[in-house]
């Protein structure tokens, strides 16, 4: 005898396989980001309602077609109903596809793992007006549609706020944010958009979010050029930037760096990512020294070293050891003479040493936009 429970269980498994549970990001102003779950049951109910509507339309259409008294005007009405039904089906498919594409775009952006080309490919296109009669069928997706737009606005606001915070930090270092903003491949610097640009024809909220995110991403990745690490861990600050008493001549002289004293051999580390552009014994008083180009017009110099562990042309990571502290060249004792140059001119390194942790935090968060908020479970 056929087991009805076995049959029912098999049917449920097939339905669940065809209509798996889906999750969508959901933002509410009062509680933050939530997760909206579209369960198998909810999908079945929605499809059942749609099937009922389509069945009623088909039955009504068949009844009209089957009548031998249909006049020309009625035939036109049947044709119109068929067209409306086809448009309704197409509208449901397009709306579902748009909701899923928005979800993919938002999930990639929030993850912090996407690059501009990936996000550009997922850019949601501006939706066409819904077909007549579609509002009732699409009503279950209306709230999700509004939530996605709200989340896009919220994420854009968060990106713009963080951009301003990072910009303020850069200005406190005597630099301008524009130094770190490279030209976007999608032409975000001007109003004109090429026809093949992912921004052309995109939904306004998602277009604005993409531009804000890309601008923030460029700025914070560009900040990797800022010297944000103290080059030595164990040191005594012995001399600052500016006019000072010269220990060799007895006169006042301009000191274009800071002196950090410590034991001979104390490891010296690169203050930021970059490329070694000089590593040698310098006859002009630096002794053994290393010079690193970090990009964006920023260079650091390390003088009086006891040894050099890198060579010209080496690509160096922030924190990588480049040599040891010493007293070579024009020096009275073991110390590191450290300089920061902007566009070829020495500037005071102290603001960079003091702002290191804040700069590093901005560098490490590049590419992510946190939106926060609790997860709201939904019932079956």
Quick structural summary:
About 40% of the residues lie in helices and about 20% in strands.
Write the layout of secondary structure elements.
Blueprint: H1 4-18, E1 22-28, E2 32-38, H2 40-66, H3 72-111, H4 116-121, H5 134-172, H6 204-222, E3 236-239, E4 242-245, E5 252-255, E6 258-261, E7 267-269, E8 274-282, E9 287-295, E10 298-305, E11 307-308, E12 315-316, E13 321-324, E14 335-342, E15 345-347, H7 350-354, H8 356-364
Antiparallel strand pairs: 1-2, 3-6, 4-5, 6-14, 7-13, 8-9, 8-12, 9-10, 10-14, 11-13, 14-15
Helix pairs in contact: 2-3, 3-5, 5-6
Average pLDDT score = 75
Report the strand count. 15
Strand content: 15-25%
Gyration radius, in Å: 32 Å
Largest sheet: 8 strands, antiparallel
Would you tell me the structural class of the helices and strands? alpha+beta
Order of helices and strands: HEEHHHHHEEEEEEEEEEEEEHH
Count the DSSP helices.
Answer: 8
Low-confidence regions: 1-5, 183-193, 371-380
Q: Label the overall shape.
A: rod-shaped
Distance between the termini: 32 Å
Estimate percent helicity. Answer: 40-55%
Number of domains: 2
Task: Please characterize this protein's 3D structure.
By secondary structure, the chain is an alpha+beta fold. The protein has two domains: 220 residues, no CATH class; 119 residues, Glucose Permease (Domain IIA) (Distorted Sandwich), CATH 2.70.70.10. The chain is 42% helix and 21% strand. The protein is built from eight helices and 15 strands. Strands 3, 6, 8, 9, 10, 12, 14 and 15 form an eight-stranded antiparallel beta sheet that branches. The longest helix is centred in the N-terminal third of the chain and has 40 residues. The chain is rod-shaped, with a radius of gyration of 32 Å. The N terminus and C terminus are likely disordered.
